[in-house]
Structures are given as structure tokens and as C-alpha cells.
Amino acid sequence: KNQVEQSPQSLIILEGKNCTLQCNYTVSPFSNLRWYKQDTGRGPVSLTIMTFSENTKSNGRYTATLDADTKQSSLHITASQLSDSASYICVVRVNTNAGKSTFGDGTTLTVKP
Amino acid sequence: DTEVTQTPKHLVMGMTNKKSLKCEQHMGHRAMYWYKQKAKKPPELMFVYSYEKLSINESVPSRFSPECPNSSLLNLHLHALQPEDSALYLCASSQDVRGGAGELFFGEGSRLTVL
Asked: How far apart are CA A102 and CA A90, in angstroms?
């Protein structure tokens, strides 16, 4: 069964600190992996998208890594800001014509002053 | 700002009402999706439209009826809903349904409350 597991479930850090969120998946055949940020009550916004051949991709203070061999991805946030408080969702897309994606349960990040 | 526009942002309806959620995108995407999201849970796929044809229905109850009038518009017609249908309904689009078609672009969602 295709699955995406994220850890930790929730995380509290102080403003200015760094943190790393984890995503392990068993989705096959793999097409791409995306990290989304979702503020409470709003739609998810894409942070990065990574394909099989990509190991690292940065978007400002966000850096995502992908190890396709171990089927693991991480999202590193540097110099956290209060506005980073949100749910971060890992989404893996299968390489078929079905249009389906498998969502992780998300990590809820709270940044405190 | 998202390029997928959903209306209304909030909707309160009784169990006997008929209402519709609307979604619009002008990115030329040929795949559009409806997701349902309960609090503190990830989005759950409901329907997928590919080139204006329904390609996936995830066993959604018939009280939810999707419609794709053209490649830019996606509607979700609601009738005889139950209180447990209260949720955030998200519309999304992508270039097409193929796995390598890049990312999903989400709208801001429509918050539905069924009384």
C-alpha cells in the first residue's frame, strides 16, 4: 500500500532556530515529492517539488532533500520566523496516468517568540 | 496569491439545502481536483477531472455532484448533506493527470458548515 509517513507529528521551536522535518514514503512507482505549507484554514502552498534525480532543492529559508534509494525526504527550515508556524505536508505523486497523490499527515510547526 | 480561485470562502447550509462550490483557474491546466479536508487531517481526494471528463470518483456519496463546464471551471454541487460533511473543501489543478505533470496548485478552500 502506498504510504507517506511524516515525523515529528508536531514541533515547537523558538524564533530564529532551525528545524528539520522528515518524510518517509513507500509510494511506487515514484514520480515526484512535494512539500507544502498550509496555514490554518487556508489551502496548501507548494514550497518545493523534487523529482527522482534531484537530491537537494532550496527555496529561500527552506531546503528539501531527497534520497530516492532510502525513500526519505527532509525539509530544513533555517532562521525560523513566527510566520513559519503552519502545517507542513509531504505529498508523493505516483508515476501513472491516474492523477493520484499520497499525502502525509503533516507536521504542525509552532514557532514561539 | 493562489492562481486557483474558490468561491464562496465560507458556506453555511441546512441539510435540505442545495448549494454549489465553484473553482476557477486560468493557468491552462487540464486536470482539476476536489479534495475534502477535516481539521488536523490531510486532504482526501474526492474527484479528478482530466480534460473536462471525470476520471476518478473516490466512492464519494451522490449528495456530492461534480461538474466541469469547461477547462477553467470546476463546480461541486451539494444536496442533502449531513453535519459530518462539514469540512474545508479544496480545489486544485495541475498541468494534467500524468504523474510527471508537476505540482498541484490549490485554492484557498471553501469552509462548509452543515447545520
From this structure: 8
pLDDT digits (tens, 9 = 90+) for A28-43: 888 889 999 999 989 9
Rounded to whole angstroms, what are the CA distances from A26 to A51, A58, A71, B80? 15, 24, 7, 38
**Smallest CA–CA distance from A27 into chain B, residue:** B99
Q: Name which of B48, B88, B94, B104 to mutate to probe chain A: the one with the most chain A Cβ atoms within 10 A of its Cβ.
A: B104
pLDDT digits (tens, 9 = 90+) for B36-92: 999 989 999 999 999 999 999 999 999 999 999 999 999 999 999 999 999 999 999
Q: Which of B40, B102, B106 sits opposite A49 (nearest CB)?
A: B102
Query: Given a cut of 80, is residue A27 above it in pLDDT?
Result: yes
Please state, in angstroms and rounded to a whole number, the distance separating the CA atoms of residues B13 and A51: 42
In this structure, the number of other CB atoms found within 10 A of the CB of residue A82 comes to: 10
Q: How confident is the model at residue B2 (pLDDT cuts 50, 70, 90)?
A: low
Which residues of B make CB contacts under 8 Å with A? 2, 4, 6, 31, 33, 40-43, 45, 48, 50, 55-56, 88, 90, 92, 94, 96-100, 102-109, 111
**Residue among A53, A16, A59 at smallest CA distance from A31:** A53
- Here the cell at position B5 is 480561485
Tens digit of each residue's pLDDT (9 = 90 or more) over A7-20: 999 999 999 999 99
